[in-house]
Write a structure and sequence with these properties.
The chain is of the alpha/beta class. Helix content is 32%, strand content 16%. The strands form 3 sheets. The protein has a 7-stranded parallel β-sheet, with helices on both faces. A 3-stranded mixed β-sheet has the order 7-9-11.
């Protein structure tokens, strides 16, 4: 790979992906493309993550300039409105960014001679998954705008794939773990933050839903595999569950494991909460078969310890973190309230500065 474009690189997952690809493809030109909404949300970083890139470009993936694609061999498409609360608040924008812009980018990439297109999909497409572990052939049941955007993207990416344009849709489990731009609106990260800040893990459901998990560093390793995947190994189009069977957990068991790892932590369970329909266990055997050298390496205990130690190093003590800038929806809300962002999540043009009055 001579040139790799990473969209949405300035979010939660991006810094780890950039660092990993820099190690694995030291001679490649790495280019980032991002709106920069969360560029300021650094957490304990010792250097700017984008300093590992050859170029950082700023722009809207809905309007990506054609010249950005010149000479690009592979695209890692991370750019998205990236969780259910944001998708609910910005439903139309979610479909524009996550589905329409992504498919349009893939079409243009194919025409430009890009060889590999890696799409960050999600296991959330299984929605209310029932009892059995979901395989790639299982029926999808998206319950949110975010999940629907991923399903529609996969459907429209499929016919674009051919021998010259290899498309891989990585259906990632729920992300967790430390990042240079940490998010706390993810279940494991949220629970560890509560334990560190207040000694309490507050479960906002009855604790029974199932969630598969994956560390952000293992997501980066999966992306490396997808970039180099041969079309003969899985087909020119591949939608694949990405994670490990051992990382399927019920929410209440996650909370208990974290409480046991951080002494003095109490678990608060809302038994009266309405059931969370988003519950799914996932079968990752296909990923295990096709990518044996890129299987997840991180464990839940070391992920908990990493998050705990990182938060303590930041002197994190915010018991009200769910209303803080470590929640992505709060960042967007603050930018809108200040007039920096428009309702369709584009940067607002600066107000014109009146010039000096002319004397006549």
């Amino acid at each position: 790979m001579n040139r790799i474009l990473i969209t949405g690189n300035m979010g939660y997952v991006g810094p780890g992906v950039v660092q990993h690809l820099r190690r694995q493809f030291p001679q490649a030109e790495l280019i980032g493309y991002d709106m920069g909404f969360f560029a300021h949300c650094l957490t304990g970083a010792t250097r700017l993550p984008e300093s590992r890139l050859d170029r950082q470009l700023f722009g809207d993936v809905r309007e990506l300039p054609a010249d950005v694609l010149q000479g690009v061999d592979a695209i890692v498409h991370l750019a998205a409105i990236s969780n259910d609360p944001m998708g609910q608040t910005y439903e139309d924008v979610t479909m524009q960014v996550n589905h329409e812009a992504g498919v349009r980018l893939a079409r243009r990439a194919k025409a430009a001679g890009v060889r590999a297109f890696v799409f960050a999909s999600s296991c959330s497409i299984y929605g209310a998954g029932g009892e059995g572990a979901k395989t790639e052939s299982s029926e999808v049941n998206p319950l949110t705008a975010y999940a629907r955007s991923k399903v529609r993207s996969e459907q429209d990416l499929h016919p674009l794939a051919d021998d010259d344009f290899c498309v891989t849709c990585l259906r990632f489990a729920t992300a967790c773990g430390w990042s240079d731009r940490l998010r706390l609106d993810l279940v494991v990260n949220d629970f560890v933050a509560g334990a560190v800040a207040s000694g309490t893990i507050s479960i906002l459901s009855d604790g029974t839903p199932w969630r598969p998990l994956i560390h952000v560093q293992d997501m980066a390793r999966a992306i490396e595999w997808a970039i180099g995947r041969e079309a003969s190994h899985g087909g020119t189009f591949l939608a694949i569950n990405t994670g490990a069977d051992s990382w399927n957990y019920q929410v209440r068991d996650l909370a208990q494991a974290i409480a046991e790892s951080i002494p003095g932590t109490e678990v608060s369970l809302n038994a009266a909460a309405p059931p969370d329909k988003r519950s799914y266990r996932v079968d990752f055997s296909l990923y295990r078969d096709l990518a044996p050298a890129h299987q997840p390496r991180r464990t839940l205990p070391d992920t908990i310890a990493e998050l705990r130690d990182g938060l303590l190093a930041m002197n994190f003590r915010d018991a009200s973190f769910r209303t803080s800038q470590l929640m992505r929806l709060r960042v967007l809300t603050a930018l809108r309230d200040s007039g920096e962002l428009t309702d369709d999540l584009t940067w607002a043009l600066p107000a014109a500065v009146p010039g000096p009055a002319l004397l006549v």
